[in-house]
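Case study.
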Amino acid sequence: MELLGSGKGGDKIYDLYLRLEQDVLVKDPDVVIIFIGVNDVWHKRSSGTGTDYNKFEAFYNAIIQKLNAANIKVVLCTPAVIGEKTDFSNELDGDMNKYASLIRSIALKNNLPLVDLRKSFLDYNLEHNPENKEAGILTTDKVHLNDNGNKLVADEMWKHIRNLKLTGN
Amino acid sequence: MELLGSGKGGDKIYDLYLRLEQDVLVKDPDVVIIFIGVNDVWHKRSSGTGTDYNKFEAFYNAIIQKLNAANIKVVLCTPAVIGEKTDFSNELDGDMNKYASLIRSIALKNNLPLVDLRKSFLDYNLEHNPENKEAGILTTDKVHLNDNGNKLVADEMWKHIRNLKLTGN
Amino acid sequence: MELLGSGKGGDKIYDLYLRLEQDVLVKDPDVVIIFIGVNDVWHKRSSGTGTDYNKFEAFYNAIIQKLNAANIKVVLCTPAVIGEKTDFSNELDGDMNKYASLIRSIALKNNLPLVDLRKSFLDYNLEHNPENKEAGILTTDKVHLNDNGNKLVADEMWKHIRNLKLTGN
Amino acid sequence: MELLGSGKGGDKIYDLYLRLEQDVLVKDPDVVIIFIGVNDVWHKRSSGTGTDYNKFEAFYNAIIQKLNAANIKVVLCTPAVIGEKTDFSNELDGDMNKYASLIRSIALKNNLPLVDLRKSFLDYNLEHNPENKEAGILTTDKVHLNDNGNKLVADEMWKHIRNLKLTGN
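After joint prediction, the assembly is written out as follows.
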């Protein structure tokens, strides 16, 4: 098994759609893990260029459809965090939860495996962030992951990839 | 006892400060109830003209100071809701919680009575909004109160005003 | 010759890209006129969901490339107006000019005909809007076109479509 | 004559109002120069916390009124630039022009001297910025002034302060 990264800083859902053929489909993957959403929410605040909820859903579904058409297994992820406080008082928690809920419902509707990173990050912080800090547990700066954050993502993804292999070929 | 309204649609914290003398102090009140914050959060999204967190705090404290200087009893309120869903997936829940927490800490620091409407609204919705709807329980449109919402605000405020009178003159 | 509309309210550049095959290419057109950009600018202010300048350029070029690959003649338009004042004091004039300049340079680089509606609307308003009003000359509400606005767009587009036919088949 | 600075980075119009007594009136000045507006426009885009046009006007007038009541001469300035391009294609030029126009009309209505820095900066750039660059002529980064920018501001202000003195005591 080989793992290939195609992620790009600053990407929003429609950027994935634009790059899908040239950056992903050309590699003829067996499985594609979609991990997107932080910038779609964050950029609403930081630059006025986030993604409308209904457009996010439309592009997300369009990506799944293209991957299905190419017989590629798809794994979805919820976006993890913009701020690590555990009492839902991070500025963008409401919108993050809204987009995470959407991805959960897309996974359910399409019967696709879901790596619920938003839930995993919250559970981890509930245990390891008793002071309710906004950064420093799994991220360096509220958004970008530190070593622990990267390890948590890898562990959670592996659980699902491994299962896929067992039920696959 | 006489109740006088001085609220104005669209106001943010600094608008209260600007109108304080001409609209409130001139009436020589015994008690002033401050109920503000929804627009400070909401306008960030709707028109790019919300209020910075640190500026919100500075003006809030400046208002309390002016009321203290005039020997007026002050009662604080947390902003209630922008969306009535109970799982913190209303788009602006994170920022609402952040500003509500600030007001709670200002009340604590200044030993002022607090009408925690955000908590009251959430408690009410946890009981009466089992379908997790975003409007229609206490608001008509996620923000503006219906009759039940107005009654809940009145009831919660009255609890504190009554107490004030008992310990007052 | 037959004229077919495929425009949709609320669309931004990436929405055109998403709908290109199912709504445009299936009709096997000889010519496609691209008229987009107002929402990409406007939504930055109204909902925090406008389009980044560099992403706007990337999707615009991707659309042209797909139309070129299908041997379809392409005509570009600059976005017309968000506000009709003629002294560049409409709130979003700067960003509108920035995106219009980009489209002009894309037309030049690709040697494509350009319907410069932003220039046409300004010229018209310089003549017919001596009171520097923000709406009512070519729009009803600063953005949506009235009959005069629609006629101006049709006239300007026709000049270029007619020329295309003369030099075409 | 003594010159005293009371400006503070990040301030918007209402911050001036909040600080007026403690930072300006206590110094018992003969003349006050008001130079504000960039953040009121800029923060709409950068953080969703700019200032509504009508609120900007209300606070601006309230400041003038307080200074008048203290018999202080008032000099107004238009905000200079967010980007130095001369063809009104800087992203925020429209809103900058809108707020500058408002200040010009306030000066006219109150018969107050106006240092029209926005006009001075544009005139300077029309002469010295033939390549239509967005920074580097009078600013380091589109907003913050370099030595030439500071000198231009000082020169323009001096013209008006000198005149005030001649007609004053």
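Observations recorded in class. The two ends of chain C are 12 Å apart (CA to CA). The helical segments of chain C are 13-24, 38-46, 53-69, 93-109, 117-128, 147-167. We will return to this complex in the next lecture.
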